[in-house]
């Protein structure tokens, strides 16, 4: 279903409410689940994040895009408590998240996916799911006795893990090492693991990276189903097909700042966005943007870069 088409789900009202939101950086949303103000993060002489104001609409799929080094991952880390901003305030469901530990943020319902690391690869699929139930204390928590981790809540956690594995068609793999999964299956496991805490907001870090084209459609279906189930989705992605296909709203960052916001169709034609990608190194397939340039009589992105030299 094209992103702009009316949704038939319970999220339809949230999606429809975006129609009247102005397409400008920091635009207020009718029902924001996250509100962030004056968030900055400096690394040495570099201001990696410098966001004046941003709101994430509840119940919709928002894409966070921008060229390499724009500050997207750092901003994700700041919102979810895995890094501390130098300045700023942000709230989730109206409650401040400043100085709240990441696992507590996850338990409040705001959770991010993590790429499957070496350590997690050596655990089975089911063990990875059980770790998700801890609210992502991080790998350091693995040092604690696993017995402690699995006590008490073990049975209900295992039941929930199995339900989710079945939903993501990974149930046959529960005893296999996570490291043996294909790229696409890993992404499904990352998503399933995040759902262990029954979140309201799921933040996906490059869900399409390393996924073979045949699995992409199925993965897109799973992301859309999160929205159909009433969850809010915020994802960082370089794959413009995914951005165009499933996002209801797009926020663009460049050099730490939010430079544009809007529905995917208008964002892909936004001159500020095209300029940001042209002026920076990027991993994004910007053929969509290139088409826009070509239709406006430019020589295409390669030619544009050539002219700049
Ligand atoms: N821990 C760190 N120490 C020093 N510099 C950092 C650190 N983390 C990020 N940076 C720098 O901050 C800037 C923003 O990086 P970030 O990873 O947030 O960008 P991004 O938009 O996610 O990029 P990409 O799309 O390439 O993943 C980059 O210049 C990066 O080199």
UniProtKB/TrEMBL annotation:
Residues 1-12 have a biased composition (Polar residues). Keywords: ATP-binding, Nucleotide-binding, Transport. GO terms for cellular component: plasma membrane. Residues 1-31 are annotated as: Disordered. Signal peptide: none annotated. SMART domains: AAA (SM00382). It comes from the Bacteria. InterPro entries: AAA+_ATPase (IPR003593), ABC_AA/LPS_Transport (IPR051120), ABC_transporter-like_ATP-bd (IPR003439), ABC_transporter-like_CS (IPR017871), BCA_ABC_TP_C (IPR032823), P-loop_NTPase (IPR027417). Residues 34-280 form the ABC transporter domain. One of its GO terms (molecular function) is ATP binding. This is ABC transporter ATP-binding protein. It comes from Nocardioides seonyuensis. The lineage of its organism: Bacteria, Bacillati, Actinomycetota, Actinomycetes, Propionibacteriales.
């Amino acid at each position: 279903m094209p992103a702009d088409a009316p949704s038939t789900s319970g999220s339809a009202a949230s999606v429809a409410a975006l129609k009247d939101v102005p397409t400008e950086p920091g635009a207020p949303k009718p029902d924001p689940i996250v509100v962030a103000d004056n968030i900055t993060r400096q690394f040495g002489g570099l201001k990696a994040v410098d966001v004046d104001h941003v709101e994430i609409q509840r119940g919709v799929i928002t894409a966070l895009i921008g060229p390499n080094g724009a500050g997207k991952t750092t901003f994700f880390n700041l919102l979810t408590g895995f890094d501390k901003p130098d300045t700023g305030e942000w709230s989730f469901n109206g409650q401040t998240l400043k100085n709240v530990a990441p696992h507590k943020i996850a338990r409040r319902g705001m959770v991010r996916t993590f790429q499957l690391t070496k350590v997690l690869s050596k655990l089975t699929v089911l063990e990875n799911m059980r770790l998700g139930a801890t609210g992502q204390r991080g790998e350091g928590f693995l040092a604690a006795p696993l017995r402690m981790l699995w006590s008490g809540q073990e049975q209900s956690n295992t039941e929930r893990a199995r339900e989710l594995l079945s939903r993501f068609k990974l149930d046959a793999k529960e005893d296999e090492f996570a490291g043996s999964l294909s790229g696409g299956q890993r992404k499904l496991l990352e998503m399933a693991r995040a759902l262990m805490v029954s979140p309201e907001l799921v933040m996906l870090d490059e869900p399409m990276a390393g996924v073979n084209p045949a699995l992409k459609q199925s993965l897109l279906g799973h992301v859309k189903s999160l929205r159909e189930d009433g969850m809010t989705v915020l994802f960082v992605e370089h794959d413009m097909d995914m951005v165009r296909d499933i996002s209801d709203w797009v926020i663009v960052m460049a050099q730490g700042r939010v430079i544009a916001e809007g529905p995917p169709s208008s964002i892909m034609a936004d001159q500020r966005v095209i300029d940001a990608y042209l002026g920076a190194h990027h991993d994004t397939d910007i053929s969509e943007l290139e088409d826009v340039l070509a239709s406006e009589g430019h020589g295409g992105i390669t030619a544009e870069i050539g002219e700049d030299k």
